Amino acid sequence: MDDVLEQLQQIFRDILDQPDLVLTRQSNAHNVEDWDSLAHINLVSAIEKRYKIRFALGELQDLKDVGDMIDLIHVKLAAK
Q: Of 7, 21, 61, 69, which residue is least crowded by CB atoms under 10 Å?
């Protein structure tokens, strides 16, 4: 499993209070229980804090699933 996916899985488990949640690159708000707009804000905030990065609003609007988020995190980390 990709390190970023593994770390995101832990963040999602904590924020969504689902200790057994298993994320894939195809996971999205439609197929992950309790991933609503408020949870999304909390997830983004936790991810930014964990990786010490910032997302622009436009970047977040283009994300379709966890795989897109992983790819964007890799881009942000490479730019540091």
A: 61
Domains, the chain: 3-78 (1.10.1200.10)
What is the per-residue pLDDT across 6-50, written as a single tens digit (0 to 9) for each? 999 999 999 999 999 999 999 999 999 999 999 999 999 999 999
Q: How many residues does the chain have?
A: 80
CA distance 67 to 7: 13
What is the DSSP code string of 6-74?
Answer: HHHHHHHHHHHT-TT----TT--TTTSTT--HHHHHHHHHHHHHHHT----HHHHHT--SHHHHHHHHH
Determine the pLDDT at residue 31. Answer: 97
